Amino acid sequence: MTATDALKARRTLRLPRTAPALRRLGPLGVVAAALLAAVTLTTLLAPVLAPYDPDRPDLFNALAGASPEHLLGGDALGRDVLSRLMWGARTTLSGPLLIIFLSTTIGTTLAITAAWAGGKVDAVVSRLLDVLFAVPGIVFALVAVAVLGPGVPGVVLGLTIAYTPYVARVVRSAALRERQLPYIAAAWVQGRSAVGICVRHLLPNLRPLIIAQSVSALGFAVIDLAAISFLGLGVQPPTADWGLMVKSGLDSATRGQPLEALGAGLLIALVVAAVNVLGDRIGRQEGELR
Amino acid sequence: MTFLLRRLAGLAVVLVVASFLVYGLLYLVPGGPMAFLLGNRSGTPEQIAAIREQYRLDDPFLVRYLAWLGDALQGDFGTSLVYRQDVSALLGARSTTTALLVAYATVVIVAVGVAAGTLAGLRPGRADAVISALASAALAVPTFVIGVLLVIVLALGLGWFPVFGPGEGFLGRLHHLTLPAITLSLGSAAFLARITRASVREELGREHVETARSRGLAERHVVRRHVLRNASIPVVTVTGLTVASLLAGSVVVENVFALDGLGSLFVRAILQRDFAVVQAVVLVLVTAFVLVNLVVDLCCKALDPRLSR
Amino acid sequence: MTLLDVRNLGVAVPAARDWRTLVDGVDLAIGSGEAVGLVGESGSGKSMTARTLLGLTPPGARVTGDIVFDGDSVTGMSRRELRALRARRVAMVFQDPRAHINPVRSVGDFLTEALIAHLGHTPTEAQARATRLLADVGIPDGARRLRQYPHELSGGLLQRVMIAAVLAAEPELVLADEPTTALDVTTQSEVMAILDELRRERGMAMLLITHDLALAAATCDRLSVMYAGRIVETQESTALTATPRHPYTSGLMLSRPSIDTVVDRLPVIPGRPVAAYESGDGCAFEPRCAHAEAHCRDRRPAVQDLAGARVACVRAGELTLQGDTA
Amino acid sequence: MTSLKKSAGPDTVIEAAGLRKEFGPAVAVDDVSLTLERGASLAVVGESGSGKTTLARMLVGLETPTGGTVTVCGRPRKPGRVSSAERRRRAREMQIVFQDPYSSLDKLQRIGAVIETSLDLHFSLTPGERRKRALELLEAVGLSERHASMLPRQLSGGQRQRVAIARAIAVEPQILVLDEAVAALDVSIQAQILNLLADIRERSGIAYVFISHDLAVVHQISDFALVMSGGRVVERGATRALLSAPQEAYTRALRAAVPRPGWKPERRPVG
């Protein structure tokens, strides 16, 4: 039978699951993972590694270019740019991680509940998601800032609300597809509880998708948080933060010192690229496993 | 027709809910609306009375909301506490700048994204590799970083473009908007290129394309009438979503290039706690966003006969 | 007169590190106007064989051997020649019409596009011709159907549309790849009847790819049975069903339950069907064969002529196998 | 006689009366009644859209009937939410095997675990006993110990269907519903599974409800048959009699469409 032929062909082409994780990432994936590890380590070890106190102004170093003492020069207040870049990943990365953790947890719970319960519960959740979708993500964050005042908590709250419907929509449609499969019906007929089926069958089968989804959302969250900080509404000065440094660096650049803006911009781009590559690889594996 | 009516009704519901939330937010602020409206300003009793009057703080919540909504429907969003000007007047001129910026960026996105994506989809190998790599790079760089880089290189370094400001006359404005529009469009164009490539690839592998080939139709004919035609459906959907998200992206870009549009007004209003302006801008953005989505749905329905039942 | 002559056809697709053989040493001949059935289970390579005849192999596939159509070598054709072959001389009916007809184009578009492109019809002529073709395949209200989209038609109607499209080209050979597998039994009967009748009227030859031996036997002049990428037996249909010469053919027939008789337990072929690349050096069927002997593992059995049958089994001459009794 | 209307005796395992299922405006199943005796095999035959699968899903409780009643092993099945204890009790009465061998197993669950989970839900066994019983069940369906540690994708379609059968009989139900359970399999595998099902019924006295479009398969596996079309039962009777001398035009057309030696496809006006 040709239909089963095709099914079988698709299944035999799968990658062996036992292949080592690194090899499955591919060379580019390994580079991306290494870059993220290096950034994380650097920022954790910044108190030891950074040559200067990131917050100490030095008028002699203000808007200075690169020099042996200050490899990337100084910012408008004369603070060492390299030291500030080393510290700067903390807020740039921890905020998005929190946003993704929260939105993935809330979104997945909502999605699986809606997909399993179906009927009215699903209709209510879907309408709610539709309404949330009618507002561009960054607007949520800005409104939250308008209410709570500039700062990280408002942005995290706003972006969590903004990201949750994306997670929920993707997971819900995958969960709806998955729950149509006969193995779920078989578990139900066997007398398994709804919670048991969701936790033991549905969730593990959706896990690769959820991971791929949250990794690629992480890239967007880094960009969004940095953009809001750039606008002056997120992380507040004098904290060393990449988004903020692009902002102050733009000012310095018009006055002849582009290294602060370039360095911070480049680092954000590299981190996001690395996260995207990882998300892409994980997503591709998920596709092959289907 | 019933489809359109249903969609319009849904749209109205979304707008009512959004407006309710936007209005209600004022009351979620710690300390209540009064503390919020006064913000860091210290109010004299007269000012406080004036604010109470303007925001009808003595009426019940629903009455106030309905009154505000009624006014908003007539284009009256109240008076800005900072500018001491009608909010609608503040919005008017700035909307044009933002609309022009978004339109400019849309043209760039569709032209570059669809062309590059189609090319990459149809030509596996070098063209595909180059385009995919460029798209990945462009996707990783945040809008504001692109903007800052363009300012540093093209405007400050090479002096090809004006750095800041809106410009005079239509051509002048376009010239001034070129860097902002490129900034705004780069990431989205890359995203659209990816989607286009993926959907062209997917269609190329479809069974009905095999049928067309098995009938001896010329490859050009197969590509045009079957592959591209079918691939256009997801591309249109994503284009719409992208354009809608440009409305939000313009907030950032206007700030980089110091353009006086809705976005920069929005950010200033937030910083200065000018709530009448915040409410109005959010409503305008949501309305535009929802309208763009409606247009996309209509396009998809026209393109895909399976959707019209 | 031989219309299609396939000699020693092999198809392999690239796998992780090496080649994966799907079709191996297939010889097949079809005379003009003749109907030949190619029968096999999943992985037998029957569908790949049919696609290869039209050059529709997956990207990177390696094709060996000769395919000669009406004196011309198909394997050596330029793209233009191949297109001309597909356009006017060899046409294909696919298994799943819902996937194989563009869902966003109307039925009319589907039927007329080839008429306009290949036969130089004007759109109006093509419309009229398409309506007549639909009438030929038993769809009376053609003008209305032409304006409909595939999702508005049932699977059976859609498969008739596919057949009408094939007839439009007036080819000399129709390749029908499981044309009725996705359909209900009563619809299958009708669609096969239409295909059979119109093919005979127009003197077209047919290669019917199917897993259903009884269906193939009822509609084809001659049958070839495939196993693991090779043809194991070829005979006239009636002879093959009465006196199968290959143990696999016999096993396939006997393991299928009958609507006329009930047996306590069905005689089964143990194990599962394998693809060409999964089989060893000897006879691919040997591990499942009730009549296997040690030397069956030694080498691939050569095809031998045996009283009008061509059989790839070293023991074919000494075995008396049971066929379908009716 | 399973097919004839009579009062439910002690040996009746399913008694369904006036079953109806609507999906919005569409009526999938319309006034279907059936009885099934202990250890009997009842086939439900029909083409796509006949309502046979919906009927099967209502019997096992995957769909709630719009109307009608189902009594299983003497206990009426009340519609609506039921306690988990009641659901497990129902599971011990009736199990189901689906058509698609690829998606009827959780792709992340090892074969041994599939069977053990099912034992765990219904019997209190020590881990050792459970493991032993799971291996017995796998052997009963023609698999061996080495399959227990495999994932579904390491098995062929026929082997997966054997696992699905083992999972179903693990809870020792009175009735097994087989929804097109051999339709997706190759001919040579189909025969193996049909024989396996015959063996299981002979050994355990389980009753089958066999949903199928394939008259030849139905002929081989069932004692009684219902022919369904458009949601209604058009004919019922003992399978052999029904197929050798069908009374209704629809059944005759269905039978006439089955390819067999000497058969020619028949063209009918488009309906």
UniProtKB/TrEMBL annotation, chain A:
It comes from Streptomyces cavernicola. This is ABC transporter permease. Belongs to the binding-protein-dependent transport system permease family. It is a multi-pass membrane protein. Its main location: membrane. It comes from the Bacteria. SUPFAM superfamilies: MetI-like. The chain crosses the membrane at residues 21-50, 93-116, 128-148, 154-171, 209-235, 261-279. InterPro entries: BP-dependent_transpt_permease, MetI-like, MetI-like_sf. Residues 89-279 form the ABC transmembrane type-1 domain. Keywords: Cell membrane, Membrane, Transmembrane, Transmembrane helix, Transport. Pfam families: BPD_transp_1. It is found in: Cell membrane.
TrEMBL record, chain B:
CDD domains: TM_PBP2 (cd06261). The keyword Iron-sulfur does not apply. This is ABC transporter permease. Belongs to the binding-protein-dependent transport system permease family. The lineage of its organism: Bacteria, Bacillati, Actinomycetota, Actinomycetes, Kitasatosporales. It comes from Streptomyces cavernicola. InterPro entries: BPD_transp_1_N, MetI-like, MetI-like_sf. PROSITE patterns: ABC_TM1. It is found in: Cell membrane.
Automatic annotation (TrEMBL), chain C:
Keywords: ATP-binding, Cell membrane, Membrane, Nucleotide-binding, Transport. Pfam families: ABC_tran, oligo_HPY. Residues 4-253 form the ABC transporter domain. It is found in: Cell membrane. SMART domains: AAA. It is a peripheral membrane protein. GO terms for molecular function: ATP binding. Belongs to the ABC transporter superfamily. This is ABC transporter ATP-binding protein. It comes from Streptomyces cavernicola.
Automatic annotation (TrEMBL), chain D:
Residues 14-255 form the ABC transporter domain. It comes from the Bacteria. SMART domains: AAA. Keywords: ATP-binding, Nucleotide-binding, Transport. The keyword Cell membrane does not apply. Pfam families: ABC_tran. SUPFAM superfamilies: P-loop containing nucleoside triphosphate hydrolases. The keyword Hydrolase does not apply. GO terms for molecular function: ATP binding. PROSITE patterns: ABC_TRANSPORTER_1, ABC_TRANSPORTER_2. Belongs to the ABC transporter superfamily. This is ATP-binding cassette domain-containing protein.
